[in-house]
Structures are given as structure tokens and as C-alpha cells.
Amino acid sequence: GESVGLHLPTLSVQEGDNSIINCAYSNSASDYFIWYKQESGKGPQFIIDIRSNMDKRQGQRVTVLLNKTVKHLSLQIAATQPGDSAVYFCAEEYGNKLVFGAGTILRVKS
Amino acid sequence: DGGITQSPKYLFRKEGQNVTLSCEQNLNHDAMYWYRQDPGQGLRLIYYSQIVNDFQKGDIAEGYSVSREKKESFPLTVTSAQKNPTAFYLCASSILGGITEAFFGQGTRLTVV
């Protein structure tokens, strides 16, 4: 339904610390999940993905964890840098389309 | 370079006018999507298409129309029936509907004046 007026949560972290961004997804039958990063005024960019037959996947400085029991996804960013400041979205594959979560603003303090 | 291109980047429309946003991809992707993003909010699905000459409504299709006459192109028309058209519009494409990552364009910011 409509989400007008619902604003994104914000996570503030100190430069160099680790960040953990959480996402609850909707459908237990979803098979594929993606994390996107969106900088101001730009389109979302792919960060990392994971399929439902995995619990964890690591990339460069990022790790995605999937807990299917509670339908929860998290993105961990190691040694957060100022360039990591952005909005982060999770997306789930459902009904042959990608459905996006509400997003989290990450602010990195120097 | 392969990619997905939206144009124009900024668009102004007078109330009561229809306007069409362009989305072109040269990635040979089957599926294409249109999302709307309001300030400080997430992405909401307007329409999507998995194959040429076929498309489905998303969560907020009212006041919008699309066509998919070519695999590479998926234009979105914002009609005068859309009561709050001012927003950031994002187009995306993927190989098959949702089972691989979607690639996004850089968006079109539409403002009603």
C-alpha cells in the first residue's frame, strides 16, 4: 500500500567502525535477495546478492546474512568509510519481480 | 558501453499535461521495470514487463501507462490522471524477471509546475 509520509531510518556510524544494516522481507517463498546502494540523485547500484540456499555471502568489505526462519536479511560493512554514506535497500525476488524494502540511510561521521 | 539509459534527467510538466519518460537498455535484458521514489522514501513498483508486448501493473499503476514494443525500450507515460506526479522515476532491467540482479538507470526527476 501507500507509504507516503514514511521516512527512512538512519544509521550513524563513526568512520572505521563496522556497520550493520537490517531488513525484514515479506515472503517466505522468496528465493533471491539483493542489497543496493543509492547515492543522492542517482540510481541504485548493486552491492551483493544471496540465494535462499545460503546463509552468508561475503564480498569486498561487505557481508550479507540471511535468516530465513525470521525472514531477516542484514548487510555488514567493515571499516566504514565516508564514501559508504548512502541509502541502502534490500530487495527480494517475489512473483518474478523485485520488491524493495523501505531502505536505511547510512551516515558516516569522520 | 552496455547499460540502461533514462532521459531526460530533469523534466518539468504543467498540470494537466501528459509526459513520457524514456528508458533504453542495450543489455539484451528480457525484463524491465519502472519504480517511483519520493523524497526520503523507498522504491515503489509502477509497471514491469517480462517480454515484448506484455506488461503488468505494479503496486501504484494508477495514472501511469507503459508500452513494450521493443525489447530495448520501455517508455513510461505519466498522465494527467496521476494526482501527485512530482517524484524521482527509476527504470531497471534484468535478464529474467527478478532472478538475477536488476540494473538501474540514473533516474528522471519529474516536477509539476
Question: Which helices and strands occur, and which strands form pairs?
Answer:
The complex is a heterodimer of chains A (110) and B (113).
Chain A: E1 10-14, E2 19-24, E3 32-38, E4 45-51, E5 56-58, E6 62-67, E7 72-77, E8 86-94, E9 97-100, E10 104-109
Parallel strand pairs in A: 1-10
Antiparallel strand pairs in A: 2-7, 3-4, 3-8, 5-6, 6-7, 8-9, 8-10
Chain B: E1 4-7, E2 10-13, E3 19-25, E4 31-37, E5 43-51, E6 54-57, E7 64-66, E8 76-78, E9 87-94, E10 103-104, E11 108-112
Parallel strand pairs in B: 2-11
Antiparallel strand pairs in B: 1-3, 3-8, 4-5, 4-9, 5-6, 7-8, 9-10, 9-11
What labels would you give this structure?
heterodimer; A: 110 residues; mainly beta; 4-stranded antiparallel β-sheet; 54% strand; disordered N terminus; B: mainly beta
How many helices of chain B in DSSP terms? Answer: 0
Main beta sheet of chain A, described? 6 strands, mixed
The 3D shape of chain A can be described as globular
Q: How many strand segments of chain A?
A: 10
**Class of secondary structure makeup of chain A:** mainly beta
Beginning-to-end CA distance, first to last residue of chain A: 38 Å
What fraction of the residues of chain A are assigned to beta strands by DSSP? over 45%
Q: Would you summarize the structure shown here?
A:
Chain A has 110 residues and is mostly beta strands.
General description of the model:
Chain A is 0% helix and 54% strand. Chain A is mainly beta and 110 residues long. In chain A, the strands form 2 sheets. In chain A, strands 1, 3, 4, 8, 9 and 10 form a 6-stranded mixed sheet that branches. Chain A has a 4-stranded antiparallel sheet with strand order 2-7-6-5, with no helix packed on it. Chain B has no helices and 11 strands. Chain B has strands spanning 4-7, 10-13, 19-25, 31-37, 43-51, 54-57, 64-66, 76-78, 87-94, 103-104, 108-112. The model of chain B has no long low-confidence stretch (mean pLDDT 92). The chains are: A mainly beta (110), B mainly beta (113). Chain A binds chain B through residues 1-4, 6-8, 31-32, 34, 36, 41-46, 49, 89, 91, 93-103, and chain B through 6, 31, 33, 35, 38, 40-45, 48, 50, 58-60, 88, 90, 92, 94, 96-107, 109.
